[in-house]
Specification:
With 278 residues, the protein is α/β, with parallel strands linked by helices. Helices cover 37% and strands 19% of the residues.
Protein backbone atom coordinates (compact mmCIF):
# COMPACT_ATOMS: atom_id res chain seq x y z
CA UNK A 1 0.00 0.00 0.00
CA UNK A 2 2.92 2.34 0.64
CA UNK A 3 3.95 2.07 -3.00
CA UNK A 4 0.38 2.75 -4.16
CA UNK A 5 0.16 5.95 -2.10
CA UNK A 6 3.26 7.29 -3.89
CA UNK A 7 1.68 6.88 -7.34
CA UNK A 8 1.06 10.08 -9.28
CA UNK A 9 -2.42 9.77 -10.74
CA UNK A 10 -4.32 11.56 -13.48
CA UNK A 11 -8.02 11.64 -12.61
CA UNK A 12 -10.18 12.00 -15.74
CA UNK A 13 -13.94 12.30 -15.21
CA UNK A 14 -16.70 11.92 -17.80
CA UNK A 15 -19.31 14.45 -16.62
CA UNK A 16 -21.99 12.80 -18.77
CA UNK A 17 -21.55 9.43 -17.05
CA UNK A 18 -20.58 10.24 -13.45
CA UNK A 19 -22.95 11.12 -10.56
CA UNK A 20 -22.15 14.61 -9.29
CA UNK A 21 -23.49 13.87 -5.80
CA UNK A 22 -20.70 11.37 -5.16
CA UNK A 23 -17.72 13.25 -6.62
CA UNK A 24 -16.34 14.22 -3.19
CA UNK A 25 -16.42 10.61 -2.03
CA UNK A 26 -14.84 9.51 -5.31
CA UNK A 27 -11.91 11.90 -4.80
CA UNK A 28 -11.46 10.58 -1.26
CA UNK A 29 -11.32 7.06 -2.69
CA UNK A 30 -8.71 8.15 -5.25
CA UNK A 31 -6.43 9.25 -2.39
CA UNK A 32 -6.30 5.62 -1.23
CA UNK A 33 -4.48 4.61 -4.42
CA UNK A 34 -2.16 7.57 -4.92
CA UNK A 35 -1.79 11.33 -5.25
CA UNK A 36 -4.05 12.97 -7.87
CA UNK A 37 -1.68 15.38 -9.60
CA UNK A 38 -4.02 15.99 -12.57
CA UNK A 39 -7.78 16.35 -12.07
CA UNK A 40 -9.95 17.10 -15.10
CA UNK A 41 -13.61 16.70 -15.93
CA UNK A 42 -15.02 16.73 -19.47
CA UNK A 43 -18.38 17.98 -20.68
CA UNK A 44 -20.29 20.67 -22.55
CA UNK A 45 -20.39 23.30 -19.81
CA UNK A 46 -22.66 25.56 -21.88
CA UNK A 47 -25.60 23.21 -21.19
CA UNK A 48 -27.83 23.97 -18.16
CA UNK A 49 -27.72 20.44 -16.77
CA UNK A 50 -23.99 20.75 -15.94
CA UNK A 51 -24.33 24.08 -14.12
CA UNK A 52 -24.70 22.38 -10.72
CA UNK A 53 -21.19 20.92 -11.06
CA UNK A 54 -19.50 24.29 -10.39
CA UNK A 55 -19.40 24.28 -6.54
CA UNK A 56 -18.29 20.64 -6.52
CA UNK A 57 -15.42 21.37 -8.91
CA UNK A 58 -14.27 24.31 -6.79
CA UNK A 59 -14.37 22.23 -3.60
CA UNK A 60 -12.27 19.45 -5.12
CA UNK A 61 -9.96 21.60 -7.31
CA UNK A 62 -11.04 19.82 -10.51
CA UNK A 63 -10.39 21.58 -13.82
CA UNK A 64 -13.36 21.57 -16.25
CA UNK A 65 -12.53 20.94 -19.91
CA UNK A 66 -15.00 22.32 -22.43
CA UNK A 67 -16.13 20.05 -25.25
CA UNK A 68 -19.03 21.17 -27.40
CA UNK A 69 -21.62 18.69 -28.55
CA UNK A 70 -21.31 18.94 -32.32
CA UNK A 71 -24.23 16.59 -33.01
CA UNK A 72 -27.44 16.25 -31.04
CA UNK A 73 -27.67 12.94 -29.22
CA UNK A 74 -23.95 12.17 -29.56
CA UNK A 75 -21.51 12.15 -26.64
CA UNK A 76 -18.54 14.23 -27.77
CA UNK A 77 -16.74 14.26 -24.41
CA UNK A 78 -15.31 10.77 -24.96
CA UNK A 79 -12.92 11.81 -27.71
CA UNK A 80 -11.64 14.83 -25.77
CA UNK A 81 -10.99 12.70 -22.70
CA UNK A 82 -9.22 10.02 -24.74
CA UNK A 83 -7.00 12.56 -26.53
CA UNK A 84 -6.04 14.18 -23.21
CA UNK A 85 -5.26 10.78 -21.69
CA UNK A 86 -2.87 9.94 -24.53
CA UNK A 87 -1.21 13.37 -24.28
CA UNK A 88 -0.67 12.84 -20.55
CA UNK A 89 0.65 9.34 -21.20
CA UNK A 90 3.35 10.56 -23.59
CA UNK A 91 4.47 13.36 -21.27
CA UNK A 92 5.29 10.79 -18.59
CA UNK A 93 3.92 13.02 -15.82
CA UNK A 94 1.96 10.31 -14.03
CA UNK A 95 2.25 6.68 -12.94
CA UNK A 96 -1.39 5.81 -13.38
CA UNK A 97 -4.87 6.91 -14.40
CA UNK A 98 -8.27 7.00 -12.73
CA UNK A 99 -11.09 6.87 -15.28
CA UNK A 100 -14.40 7.90 -13.71
CA UNK A 101 -17.18 6.80 -16.04
CA UNK A 102 -19.76 4.08 -16.60
CA UNK A 103 -19.25 4.17 -20.37
CA UNK A 104 -17.78 1.15 -22.14
CA UNK A 105 -16.32 3.46 -24.82
CA UNK A 106 -13.25 3.84 -22.57
CA UNK A 107 -12.45 0.12 -22.68
CA UNK A 108 -9.83 0.46 -25.42
CA UNK A 109 -8.30 3.46 -23.65
CA UNK A 110 -7.87 1.47 -20.44
CA UNK A 111 -6.26 -1.38 -22.36
CA UNK A 112 -3.87 0.99 -24.16
CA UNK A 113 -2.80 2.71 -20.92
CA UNK A 114 -2.07 -0.64 -19.29
CA UNK A 115 -0.08 -1.71 -22.35
CA UNK A 116 2.09 1.35 -21.70
CA UNK A 117 2.78 0.09 -18.17
CA UNK A 118 0.45 2.46 -16.35
CA UNK A 119 -1.90 1.52 -13.52
CA UNK A 120 -5.54 2.04 -14.44
CA UNK A 121 -8.27 2.40 -11.83
CA UNK A 122 -11.86 2.54 -13.01
CA UNK A 123 -14.74 4.03 -11.02
CA UNK A 124 -18.31 3.82 -12.23
CA UNK A 125 -21.82 2.76 -11.36
CA UNK A 126 -22.99 -0.84 -11.25
CA UNK A 127 -24.47 -0.41 -14.73
CA UNK A 128 -20.92 -0.24 -16.14
CA UNK A 129 -20.44 -2.88 -18.89
CA UNK A 130 -18.11 -5.73 -17.98
CA UNK A 131 -15.58 -5.12 -20.82
CA UNK A 132 -14.60 -1.77 -19.27
CA UNK A 133 -14.41 -3.31 -15.80
CA UNK A 134 -12.02 -6.10 -16.77
CA UNK A 135 -9.90 -3.70 -18.84
CA UNK A 136 -8.86 -1.91 -15.61
CA UNK A 137 -6.35 -3.06 -13.01
CA UNK A 138 -9.01 -2.39 -10.39
CA UNK A 139 -12.60 -1.23 -10.67
CA UNK A 140 -14.61 0.26 -7.81
CA UNK A 141 -18.37 0.79 -7.85
CA UNK A 142 -19.46 4.33 -6.98
CA UNK A 143 -22.46 2.98 -5.05
CA UNK A 144 -20.03 1.13 -2.77
CA UNK A 145 -17.88 4.24 -2.32
CA UNK A 146 -20.93 6.35 -1.44
CA UNK A 147 -22.34 3.73 0.95
CA UNK A 148 -19.03 3.42 2.82
CA UNK A 149 -18.77 7.22 3.11
CA UNK A 150 -22.33 7.53 4.43
CA UNK A 151 -21.68 4.78 6.97
CA UNK A 152 -18.50 6.50 8.19
CA UNK A 153 -20.33 9.84 8.56
CA UNK A 154 -23.17 8.19 10.46
CA UNK A 155 -20.73 6.57 12.89
CA UNK A 156 -18.93 9.89 13.34
CA UNK A 157 -22.18 11.71 14.14
CA UNK A 158 -23.20 8.93 16.50
CA UNK A 159 -19.92 9.25 18.37
CA UNK A 160 -20.42 13.00 18.79
CA UNK A 161 -23.94 12.76 20.22
CA UNK A 162 -24.07 13.79 23.90
CA UNK A 163 -24.88 11.04 26.32
CA UNK A 164 -28.28 11.39 27.94
CA UNK A 165 -28.69 10.56 31.58
CA UNK A 166 -30.93 7.63 32.15
CA UNK A 167 -34.06 8.50 34.11
CA UNK A 168 -35.22 5.64 36.27
CA UNK A 169 -38.59 4.39 35.15
CA UNK A 170 -41.44 4.02 37.58
CA UNK A 171 -42.00 0.46 38.61
CA UNK A 172 -45.09 -1.09 37.14
CA UNK A 173 -47.31 -3.22 39.32
CA UNK A 174 -46.71 -6.90 38.94
CA UNK A 175 -49.18 -8.65 36.70
CA UNK A 176 -51.33 -11.42 37.95
CA UNK A 177 -50.47 -14.93 36.85
CA UNK A 178 -53.55 -15.20 34.72
CA UNK A 179 -52.61 -11.94 32.94
CA UNK A 180 -49.01 -12.93 32.24
CA UNK A 181 -47.82 -12.09 28.77
CA UNK A 182 -47.52 -15.04 26.40
CA UNK A 183 -44.05 -16.45 25.80
CA UNK A 184 -42.31 -14.84 22.83
CA UNK A 185 -42.25 -16.83 19.64
CA UNK A 186 -39.09 -18.73 18.87
CA UNK A 187 -36.63 -16.48 17.04
CA UNK A 188 -35.96 -17.54 13.46
CA UNK A 189 -32.66 -19.24 12.84
CA UNK A 190 -29.96 -16.91 11.49
CA UNK A 191 -29.14 -17.36 7.80
CA UNK A 192 -26.12 -19.31 6.76
CA UNK A 193 -22.95 -17.14 6.93
CA UNK A 194 -22.23 -17.52 3.22
CA UNK A 195 -25.75 -16.47 2.17
CA UNK A 196 -24.87 -12.85 1.35
CA UNK A 197 -21.63 -13.81 -0.39
CA UNK A 198 -22.21 -15.47 -3.77
CA UNK A 199 -20.84 -18.98 -4.16
CA UNK A 200 -18.84 -17.83 -7.16
CA UNK A 201 -17.00 -15.35 -4.92
CA UNK A 202 -16.32 -18.03 -2.29
CA UNK A 203 -14.87 -20.27 -4.99
CA UNK A 204 -12.82 -17.35 -6.34
CA UNK A 205 -11.27 -16.86 -2.89
CA UNK A 206 -10.71 -20.60 -2.50
CA UNK A 207 -8.94 -20.87 -5.86
CA UNK A 208 -6.76 -17.87 -5.03
CA UNK A 209 -5.85 -19.37 -1.64
CA UNK A 210 -4.89 -22.64 -3.31
CA UNK A 211 -2.71 -20.78 -5.81
CA UNK A 212 -0.85 -18.83 -3.10
CA UNK A 213 -0.78 -21.51 -0.39
CA UNK A 214 2.43 -22.87 1.11
CA UNK A 215 3.05 -26.52 2.03
CA UNK A 216 0.75 -26.20 5.05
CA UNK A 217 -2.06 -24.74 2.96
CA UNK A 218 -1.77 -21.17 4.26
CA UNK A 219 -1.74 -18.08 2.03
CA UNK A 220 -0.60 -14.61 3.10
CA UNK A 221 -3.62 -12.28 3.26
CA UNK A 222 -1.81 -9.38 1.58
CA UNK A 223 -0.82 -11.48 -1.44
CA UNK A 224 -4.31 -13.00 -1.54
CA UNK A 225 -5.92 -9.57 -1.87
CA UNK A 226 -3.64 -8.61 -4.75
CA UNK A 227 -4.35 -11.86 -6.60
CA UNK A 228 -8.13 -11.53 -6.17
CA UNK A 229 -8.11 -8.09 -7.81
CA UNK A 230 -5.97 -9.43 -10.67
CA UNK A 231 -8.42 -12.26 -11.22
CA UNK A 232 -11.51 -10.06 -10.89
CA UNK A 233 -10.87 -6.27 -11.09
CA UNK A 234 -14.19 -5.33 -9.45
CA UNK A 235 -13.57 -7.56 -6.43
CA UNK A 236 -14.04 -5.47 -3.29
CA UNK A 237 -15.04 -6.69 0.21
CA UNK A 238 -17.30 -3.62 0.45
CA UNK A 239 -19.47 -5.13 -2.29
CA UNK A 240 -20.62 -7.65 0.36
CA UNK A 241 -20.79 -5.35 3.38
CA UNK A 242 -17.25 -5.77 4.73
CA UNK A 243 -14.68 -2.98 5.01
CA UNK A 244 -11.68 -5.34 4.89
CA UNK A 245 -10.81 -8.62 3.18
CA UNK A 246 -9.91 -10.15 6.55
CA UNK A 247 -13.44 -9.49 7.83
CA UNK A 248 -14.95 -11.12 4.76
CA UNK A 249 -12.75 -14.21 5.06
CA UNK A 250 -13.45 -14.54 8.81
CA UNK A 251 -17.17 -14.43 8.03
CA UNK A 252 -16.94 -17.46 5.75
CA UNK A 253 -16.80 -20.74 7.75
CA UNK A 254 -14.95 -22.43 4.92
CA UNK A 255 -11.75 -20.55 5.72
CA UNK A 256 -9.44 -20.52 8.73
CA UNK A 257 -7.55 -17.33 9.66
CA UNK A 258 -4.21 -17.49 11.47
CA UNK A 259 -2.70 -14.32 12.96
CA UNK A 260 1.07 -14.61 13.48
CA UNK A 261 3.22 -12.28 15.55
CA UNK A 262 6.36 -10.94 13.86
CA UNK A 263 9.64 -9.80 15.40
CA UNK A 264 8.14 -6.30 15.61
CA UNK A 265 5.77 -5.90 18.60
CA UNK A 266 3.04 -4.03 16.70
CA UNK A 267 3.22 -5.93 13.40
CA UNK A 268 1.28 -9.10 12.74
CA UNK A 269 0.91 -11.16 9.58
CA UNK A 270 -2.44 -12.71 8.70
CA UNK A 271 -2.69 -16.01 6.85
CA UNK A 272 -5.73 -17.88 5.57
CA UNK A 273 -6.33 -21.57 4.83
CA UNK A 274 -9.13 -23.31 2.97
CA UNK A 275 -10.46 -25.98 5.35
CA UNK A 276 -12.28 -27.73 2.48
CA UNK A 277 -9.03 -28.46 0.64
CA UNK A 278 -6.45 -30.32 2.71
Amino acid sequence: MAEQKDLRLAVLIDADNAPRSAIGDVMAEVAVYGTPTIKRIYGDWTTPNLASWKPLLLENAITPVQQYGYTTGKNSTDSAMIIDAMDILYTGQVDGFVLVSSDSDFTRLAIRLREAGKKVYGMGERKTPNPFIVACDKFVYIEVIRSAAEKAKAEEVKGEEPRQEKVPKAKKPAKKKEEAAPAPATAPEPPEPESKVPKAVVELIADAVETMADEDGYAFMGDLGNLLVKKQPDFDPRNFGFSKLTQLVRYLPRFEVDVRQTSLPHVKHIYVRDKARK
